Amino acid sequence: MAQIAKVEVMMVDLAPKVKRVDAIQSFVSQETPIVRITDADGRVGTGYSYTIGTGGPAVISLLRETLLPQLIGRDAEDIEGIWRDLLFSTHATAVGAITSLSLATIDTALWDLRCVRAGLPLWKMAGGAKPSVPMYSTEGGWLHIDTTDLVSDALEMQAKGFAGSKIKIGKPTAAEDRARLKAVREAVGDGYEILVDANQAFTLSEAMRRAEILAEFGIGWFEEPMPADDIGAHVRLTAASRVPIAMGESMYSISQFKDYLAMGGCTIVQADVARVGGITPWLKVAHMAEAFNVSICPHFLMELHVSLTCAVPNAPMLEYIPQLDDITTSRLDVRAGRAHAPMAPGLGIAWDWDAIEARSISDLSATIGG
Fold it and tell me: Where is each Mandelate racemase/muconate lactonizing enzyme C-terminal domain found (predicted)?
């Protein structure tokens, strides 16, 4: 029995490596809640989640006051049971981002601990479908970047062996988006994927109009065209669009993915392990998507998602956006445009605890048990 003896929580605030602007917002900072779970044998599992600038203290408060005290004395191997019990204890605040981000911080720590105890890397423990996955880059495609630099970045990623680049759309006129995409397609040719992301900016009529433009350039997917809670609009768009529709980064439960898949609201799912509540529900979404013959291409968190995309058979690409360089000593193993899953037991993330301690917000830290 891997009885939980101590739990620690802290939060660091990380500045983005580059300016990140999309059609509706700017990425202000990465608030990163971190949880360490220690079992009675002294083994430790570490988990984390994130925000893009707001809500981090609320996540910490839910963890400290409500969720983490429930872990002491539990068997850390009872991951499904713990996840369900914690979800039920927050029933009045679920489904929602704060609850899901809090659950994910704990759930990823429990999976890390399970893998450490078993001596296996996460990608093998969670399925072991393949040891590596192709990558696409987002860092050079933000909305504020001018067309010349978009082209330069796409050519650089193509030369490195990446499978594609993602470009943010949502300029004031469709003609502006079209000109940017046309320039990139002419530069990279037809064999390189161009993906686009509207970050929920459009109405149904505008999304349909821009989908026709996207089809001109063989776009690989049209991501978050409209607000994620409007399933009906996405069903209509998916049925009409010649470009695949990708959804999922703004969904916070398995059931939301179930509804999209069952109703035909998208043709690619993009579950984010932090926003959906952890590894436990992420794997369920991935397998559910597989049953619908749909791919899963997760949003963000490449340092964690590399293991999950390698765990399942229906994850064809991983998004490249570095997030943890300032607080880790490990780096994603990228060779010829492919990300290789970590082989070390656990999540495969080597945390720099001196850097984390130096960056931690002291009044948001706590230790329970021990």
Answer: 147-244
